[in-house]
Amino acid sequence: MFRPKIKVLDCTIRDGGLLNKHQFSFDLVRKVYVALAAAGVDYMEAGYKNSRALFSETEFGPWKFCDDDLLWRLKDGVENAPKMSVLVDIGRADMNAIKKAVDSPYQMVRVATYAKDIDKCIALVNTFNDLGYETSINIMASSRDSGPELDEALDQAERESKADVVYLVDTFGYYYQEQIDAMVKRYRKWIKTKELGFHGHNNQQLAFSNTIQCIMNDVNYLDCTIYGIGRGAGNCTTELLLGFLKNPKFDIRPILDIIASDFIPMREKGDLEWGYVIPQMIAGIFNAHPEDAIAMRKGPHRDKYREFWERQIAAGLE
């Protein structure tokens, strides 16, 4: 699928950082950035831009804060460097520390929001836009917040925001292809002047196929992670996406190399678990938050799948 407007945004370090409180080593993150550059990926999301007044440095690693000096060092000397992105949660960034884009190591700021908080999101997005950044609105949990509040949020995003991209986020890995078709159509009813993006989770092993479905619907901003790393079931894999796109600017080989050298050993060590597991599948089917499944996998009943299924029914999620 060769379409020049498609942009691949790899969020390996940002989404993967949810597994280890953003404590990846600088050397690993540098290797990821170099591999993505060699692979021709368009953007790398380095982490969150959060305030140290709200989060402890003793608990969270540097990619929770993405200091400018750290990102400049990360980028230093990398050829064909992808643009760099950071993710901002409403109310968690120290705006006094944000420079204009021309003086910043990152070019894109994505703001995560729920439909109910769209007013705050738009104000933040417009501030970053005025500073010269590319911006996106990432509307989370659309599979739950799917009533009129979602339509109102999309309408406001189109009319009031300066965002370049509005993202459909399958937060719980709940959607099937037919629902993707319906949701993209719904987004396009309101979003007329901005690009659409998609961020899929792999609870039901559909993150890649749902990303393909978005591509078929002319969604141009596509999220992925190397070897699918990410909280819970993880994400659409970078290597599958690059293999599908057939764009000559992409080279899958550097991604295969770093999977072999770093990501397979990382998962085999057993400290971090991500990807398709039965509790996350169940969470996806029930449109449930992944945290309960993550907690189950860390406890003494990690393989009591039927019990976990029954708990979702008892919680009224059926």
Poorly predicted segments: none
* Secondary-structure element string: EHHEHEEHEHEHEHEHHHHH
Residues in helix, %: 40-55%
Domain tally:
2
Question: What does the secondary structure layout of this molecule look like, with pairings?
Answer:
Blueprint: E1 7-10, H1 12-20, H2 26-39, E2 43-48, H3 68-75, E3 83-89, E4 108-113, H4 118-130, E5 134-139, H5 148-160, E6 165-170, H6 177-190, E7 195-200, H7 207-216, E8 221-224, H8 238-245, H9 253-268, H10 278-285, H11 291-298, H12 305-314
Parallel strand pairs: 1-2, 1-8, 2-3, 3-4, 4-5, 5-6, 6-7, 7-8
Structure description:
- The protein is an alpha/beta fold and 318 residues long.
- The chain has two domains: 7-268, Aldolase class I (TIM Barrel); 278-314, no CATH class.
- The chain is 41% helix and 14% strand.
- The chain has helices spanning 12-20, 26-39, 68-75, 118-130, 148-160, 177-190, 207-216, 238-245, 253-268, 278-285, 291-298, 305-314; strands spanning 7-10, 43-48, 83-89, 108-113, 134-139, 165-170, 195-200, 221-224.
- It has an eight-stranded parallel beta barrel, surrounded by six helices.
- The longest helix has 16 residues, at 253-268.
- The two termini are 37 Å apart.
- β6 (165-170), α6 (177-190) and β7 form a beta-alpha-beta unit.
